[in-house]
Amino acid sequence: MRPSLLLERSLALRSLQRLTTIPPTRLIAAQTAPFSITHHSSSAQDSQLSPAKPIPAQLSPRWLGELKQRIGKCILFGLRPEQTARVGMMLQEMARDWRELLAGRHVNNVTYNRYAESARITWAQNYARNIDPAHQEAWSELWTPKGDGLILRSIKTDFKFPMTWPDHITVYHKLATAPTSQTDSFVLDVLILSELHQRPAARCVEDIVVYDYRRGKKTPLRPFMVDAFRETWALQEDAKRRNSARIEKLLQGVRELEVGSWDRADAKEDVGSAGA
């Protein structure tokens, strides 16, 4: 056996043995953030194999362990380089997401809130990096107990339908009201979209408190934050008007198609002709 092939198998087996010891990484939900598994394309040689069996309705309680055993058997048998690379990606995925995978394909309520929380931090970091870089340090400290910070006082979640693996999500945050110089708390409306179904999976309402850690009490938004939030509010209102008009135009266009086709008075289905 070639030394290079032995090395590939050894590395793959070592990855398999370390599967349960790799620390989990936290899934950060943001714009078009991955929700579940990564899809891998098959090679030309793989496509000649028999099709994969569908996932049974009732998985074995030991399915994860059995899956690792099956992977190990494949490694011992011998894999092509591209197969070895694919195994590495699968092992990485199982090491990262095994808790959620074992919990079931349905996303639980806590997970929705975690997506909203992670996306909220990304939302604030966007102000630091892109919207108001002149105050980058102050924006970045909002999630640390160093000075003025943002604390989640409460979150309410309205679940629309149960998402299942695999799927991707997009999380949107928007201000619920226009900020003022006296604002010491504000509400964020959160929309969690299922990319697979192209529909809202959940809506959240987050109540945020502006807190001064140095004095140990609530404090109004700092002037540069008020300015940034006011600009955001204006952009939100403009987007609402434009998108409402676009939706209305789409609805009108579809209705015109209906009236001009199946819903017209002399409508008759075109089934073609034998001589066509």
UniProtKB/TrEMBL annotation:
InterPro entries tied to this protein: 4-hydroxybenzoyl-CoA_TE (IPR050563), HotDog_dom_sf (IPR029069)
Top-rank lineage group of the source organism: Eukaryota
Gene3D superfamilies: Hotdog Thioesterase (3.10.129.10)
Cited Pfam families: 4HBT_2 (PF13279)
GO molecular function, one term: fatty acyl-CoA hydrolase activity
Name of the protein described by the UniProt record: Uncharacterized protein
